[in-house]
Amino acid sequence: MDAEVDVEALVRRAEELIAVESVAERPAALLQALDRVLASLPPGLTVERFESGGKPSALVYAGSRRHFRAILNGHLDVVPGTPDLFRPRREGDRLHGRGAHDMKVAALVMAAVFATLAEELPVALQLVTDEEVGGLHGTAHQIARGVTADFVVIGEQSALRVVTESRGLLHARMWAGGHTAHAAYPWLGDNALLTLMGGVSAVLDRYPVPAEEQWTTTVNLARIETPNGAYNQVPDSATAWLDIRYPAGDPDLEGRSPAELARHLGDLAGLPVTVEAVSPPHRVDPGRPEVGLLQAAARAVGYSGELLRKHGAGDGRHYAAAGIDAVAFGPAGDGQHSAAEWVDVRSIAPYHGALVAFLRSLPI
Looking at the chain, which residues constitute the CATH 3.30.70.360 domain(s)? Predict the structure, then answer.
């Protein structure tokens, strides 16, 4: 079967897919996006459907389920956006729209690659719809149902570089109490929000925001709230949401249990902390043969294939937790999660070619 891809036809399918507002809050749209990609595949393949937490996903392969030599993983959900972001537009070599770069185009390319090689190689196509909200009901759910492979390629944007490392993720809430009073008489109260701000500042003193890109632990203050419904009240409680990203090797955070992490952050802040979610850092040995083969495939189509670290967490961490190595490898573009998101159409054919060459180079 010919390994080339019709780029213009794929862009047209991508435009249709980008127009589907497949955000977490729209379960019908998530299913519509999944069905559109599945409809692009040839008949005769096994389509195993999953559903968890209202999020549909699928695993596609030839014949019966087995341990796969490789899995191509793509997510079809996107972060919310204004209506105009779901009206794709082409400007020269750039295709703009929500999900163009993260990662509907990559998912369609992966589907095309899989369609080429499904009968030839022991590979599978994994399509999920919840990566942007944690991946527990898509990739992690399928792994829990026995889906395994030697190696996984996730189509997250990378300009055909190979992402072998990403930071861990920790979501925590910090709480402070006080007692209320009339705002005109603040000395009669104890402002919980001021106490909370002191605790947040203490955590940020330990993990300051870098002035430029650094491979280090960072803390984002995502939200502060009180139960106040009026200006003229001293708040008697306050809560902060913290999004913490940490690399492998952080002695404070790596390998700690949620209770230990909560205790560490609470000691820094001098306030109660609860850990809502934690995922460890993800790292693949750069010397693994599959990494070298993927780099070689990227170089063969004119890209550097260099190794890359990613600051954000992805579904690779679920495979890492199961002892399965996964890398991110996607097309070129920029602006994911922003109003300026775009994918470089010129990278579609090389991306397709590199994936085909990589899979065919794998020792079976």
Answer: 168-279
